Structure formats: C-alpha cells, structure tokens
C-alpha cells in the first residue's frame, strides 16, 4: 500500500510540475494580450488561470509534505497539508472571481473596443493548454481531492476558453462589445459552480467529517458481522489527507481472548473493501462501553 501510494504521489507530482510550467507561460501571454487588446474576458480568464497556477503549486507542495515521515511531534506527518491546501485554493478562487465580477459589472456601463482577432487567437491557445493540463491529471483525479480539483479547474478553463473564442467571433462579425463583460460573468458563474464541490468537500475533510466515498453504515455492519461481536461504539472515521482515511472503533466481543488474527483480518478487509488505510480497533469483553466517551 505504501509503495502504491508513493508511486501515485510521484506521478501526480510530475503532473503538477508540468501543468504549472505550461500554465505560467500561458498566463503571462494571455494577460499581456488581454491588456493590449483591452479584453476583460481574456483578463478574467488570465486571472483564473493564475489562481490555477497557485493551486497547482500549492497542491504540489502539499503532496511533497505528505510524503515527509512522521516524527514524535507530528505523529501523522504532514499529510493534512493536502486538505488545507484544497480548502485554501477554493477560498482564494472565490475571492479572485469576486474581484473580476466587480470589474465586469462596471464594464457593462463602459464602452470598450477589444481586439476580437487577438481574443480568438489567444483563447484558442488557451483551449489547447487547459485540455492538455487536464489530461495530465485524468488518471489520478478519482484518488486525490487535490488532483480532482486541478482536473476540474483545467477542464472548466478549457470550456471557458471555448466560450471566449465564441465571444471574440461574435465581436469580430457583429461588433457587439457587451459580449466581453457578459462572457466574463459567465466565466465566473461556471467557475463558481465547478468550485463549489471542492470547497465543500475540503471544508468537510478539514473538520474531520466522514469522506464522501466512505459508507459508514456499511462499515458498522461489517464490524458487527465479525465473529462473536455483540456491539460497536466510538466509531470514528476521518481523512488524514486527501488520499488516506483513518478509523478507530471499540467492539464488544463475547470472548475472553484477544484474537490477533481477527484484528489483522479486519484491518485488511477495511482497507480492501472500504478504503480505510489506517484502522485502530479496541476489543472489549465487559461493560467498559458504558463508560467510554464519544
């Protein structure tokens, strides 16, 4: 399990690095041409792409921290940094889009003449950049909330770039300038929708909620199905990181002996069937559960 996790982390770290480099170059190009062409839709997309670069860099750093070995003071290591980064990136994105929304609303009452041909060319490059970056994370997006966030952001960016190209075409053939700030607001709406799940999930993990992919009722029923188990209490499940889940539980057994084989079997099946990477089970055979604290 450790080798498999290390392999995935190394591969995703490489994807973060490549994605960050590609997007840094594109953000510089897009922002430059956005200013030169006076296009708010390009500037809005550049602002979001810049926030994506920060997200990629922070997620990359968090992945590196997560691989640091535990110490006597940090007994779980720095795995939780991945959760904090996911939450920070979501909040930062909301703030960035809020500032751009204010500018877009102000532009609705201001006549501007963006260079439509520049918009079309630069945004077309953006489609390629964002979809290539999204493809880097496609194999890891279901295993890590940080990677999933990066994938969704890049996929949304690619779709937004498509909308920007369409806006440039409309301006080129019709001269309708309002399409630029209107598309900026559309960009913000799309980003808000795509980001909500990331913010919600990362917040839940940061306050030790049971991860969405974990079925606590099925786990409780499984533990109750173990031989001689009469009751279960103090069942707690939380995320140690965006990829690893921990569990603690007290089980009451009608047996005077500690069954090491049962504990090993339970730990293995919790990992294989339910994705619980670290489990700690306390076996009781008396009335201790009446005094245990939740």
Q: Supply the CATH architecture of the largest domain.
A: Up-down Bundle
Spatially, the strands of the biggest sheet line up as 1-2-3
- List unreliable stretches of 5+ residues: 1-7
- Overall pLDDT level: 81
Shape: elongated
Report on the biggest sheet. Answer: 3 strands, mixed
CA(first)-CA(last) distance:
30 Å
Can you give the helix content as a percent range? 55-70%
In CATH, the homologous superfamily of the largest domain goes by the name Cation efflux protein transmembrane domain
Draw up the topology in text.
Blueprint: H1 2-37, H2 40-66, H3 81-107, H4 116-136, H5 145-174, H6 179-206, H7 216-224, E1 229-239, E2 245-253, H8 260-274, E3 278-284
Parallel strand pairs: 2-3
Antiparallel strand pairs: 1-2
Briefly, what is this?
The chain is mainly alpha-helical and 294 residues long. The chain has helices spanning 2-37, 40-66, 81-107, 116-136, 145-174, 179-206, 216-224, 260-274; strands spanning 229-239, 245-253, 278-284.
Would you write up a description of this structure?
The chain is mainly α. The chain has helices spanning about 1-35, 40-65, 80-105, 115-135, 145-175, 180-205, 215-225, 260-275; strands at about 230-240, 245-255, 280-285. The chain folds into 2 domains: about 1-205, Cation efflux protein transmembrane domain (Alpha-lytic protease prodomain-like, Up-down Bundle); about 215-290, Alpha-Beta Plaits, CATH 3.30.70.1350. About 65% of the residues lie in helices and about 10% in strands. The protein is elongated.
């Amino acid at each position: 399990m450790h080798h498999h996790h290390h392999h995935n982390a190394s591969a995703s770290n490489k994807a973060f690095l490549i994605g960050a480099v590609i997007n840094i170059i594109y953000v510089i190009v897009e922002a430059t041409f956005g200013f030169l062409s006076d296009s708010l839709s390009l500037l809005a997309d550049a602002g979001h792409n810049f926030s994506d670069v920060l997200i990629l860099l922070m997620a990359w750093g968090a992945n590196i921290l997560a691989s640091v070995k535990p110490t006597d003071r940090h007994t779980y290591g720095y795995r939780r940094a991945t959760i904090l980064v996911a939450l920070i990136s979501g909040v930062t994105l909301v703030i960035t889009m809020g500032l751009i929304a204010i500018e877009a609303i102000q532009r609705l009452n201001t006549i501007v003449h963006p260079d439509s041909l520049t918009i079309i060319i630069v945004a077309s490059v953006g489609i390629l950049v964002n979809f290539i970056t999204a493809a880097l994370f496609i194999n890891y997006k279901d295993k890590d909330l940080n990677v999933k966030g990066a994938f969704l952001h890049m996929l949304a960016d690619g779709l937004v770039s498509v909308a920007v190209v369409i806006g440039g075409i409309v301006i080129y053939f019709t001269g309708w300038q309002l399409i630029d700030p209107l598309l900026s607001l559309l960009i913000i709406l799309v980003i808000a929708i795509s980001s909500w799940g990331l913010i919600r999930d990362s917040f839940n993990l940061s306050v030790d909620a049971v991860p969405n992919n974990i079925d606590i009722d099925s786990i409780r029923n499984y533990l109750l199905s173990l031989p001689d188990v009469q009751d279960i209490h103090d069942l707690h499940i939380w995320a140690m990181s965006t990829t690893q889940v921990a569990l603690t539980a007290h089980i009451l057994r009608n047996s005077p002996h500690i069954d090491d084989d049962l504990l090993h079997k339970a730990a293995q099946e919790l990992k294989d069937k339910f994705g619980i990477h670290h489990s700690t089970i306390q076996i009781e055979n008396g009335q201790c559960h009446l005094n245990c604290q939740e």
